[in-house]
Please model this.
Amino acid sequence: MQKAFKVTLTPNHNQQVLINKTIGCARFVYNRFLALRQELYNTEQKTLNYHACSQQLTLLKKEIIWLKEVDKFALQNSLKNLETAYKNFFSDLKKAKNKKGVGFPKFKKKYGCKQSYKTNLTNGNIQIIENRLKLPKLGWVKFHKSQDITGKLINVTIIRTNSGNYIASILCETEIEKYPQVTQNIGLDLGIKSYFVTSKGEVIDNPKYYRTQTRKLRSYHKKLSRSVKGSNNRVKAKIKLARTYQHITNLRDDFLHKLSTRLIKENSIICIEDLRVANMVKNHKLALSITEASWSKFVTMLEYKALWHDRIVQKVGTFYPSSQTCNHCGFINPLVKDLKLREWSCPHCHNYNSRDENAARNILTEGLKILAAAVGAPDALNAYGELVRPGVIQAEIVEVGIA
Ligand SMILES: [Zn+2]
Model:
């Protein structure tokens, strides 16, 4: 299993200069060869593959000596990235002609986007001892150690964030110590008021960090828009703003990591709604809470952690009326469509349902049903462990209603 460990580097002044230079050279190589490939295609309809580019790069280095000052792997990886960008573009063209795909490879900009370069491991050029990371050309760079980095090193990506911090993403081939097997299963219903409610009735509140940071963001945005273009104050305002955004991202990731790890540890099967987040964000009332909660990132974390620890994440289609169906008997109550109705009594079995918990139980029931169908078992149990066939029961109720 490959795992990336992210650490914050604390390079000294000379190392910072060299990292910036390397990032600059990697960008230069990328843009130079993109231009070359474009020109060759426009004039002679020829393409230049990675191998040909790599040969040209060797020649280029004799011409432009400052390219020799930096890590050679960074430049090679730039060419590989360009090759990948081309490949993605062409395979996208074949797949979907009408859809908007990844687009033609773009020139890399100096500002406004993530700045990075990647280096590979060969002959012990990268090493980690305690809180120091040895990198080609840079030597030993200190970093903040927050976790143990285990496994066989593959490569390292050095990133300079918009806020001016240096981060290393260390990719390792690692054995993951699996969590012990458990028998509990759980369903999650993405809440509107809360982050989600589980089928066991646990309510996870929306993290408050976004709102508390919003004020800060607003004031920094104001300062930035008032500052004169090209001024020192503008640069300062930009950095402050980027740092605040970075801080929010860190808080969010921390929240999501802790939450997803706990769920994976405690449960064997996790059933969730397959939400079209993009569709829901259009609804402005929900927009803030959904974006800030970043459901899709959370689902991604659940999915890869499930792979690590032999758990199952089962998605349930959004067409399933999870809020309206009584989990106890399967009766569909159309009145529950009203979002304001937080609790309801089932007209059929008189079971008292809390809106979100009931929905989470239905998501669990439906998820287990999908899984059972996949292995060939005909029926599924509801969250109480009872056999449930919603379709049949609904028909009965309609008849009772007429009588
Ligand atoms: Zn019922």
User: Anything to note?
Assistant: The longest helix spans residues 232-266. The chain has three domains: 2-173, 185-316, 334-402.
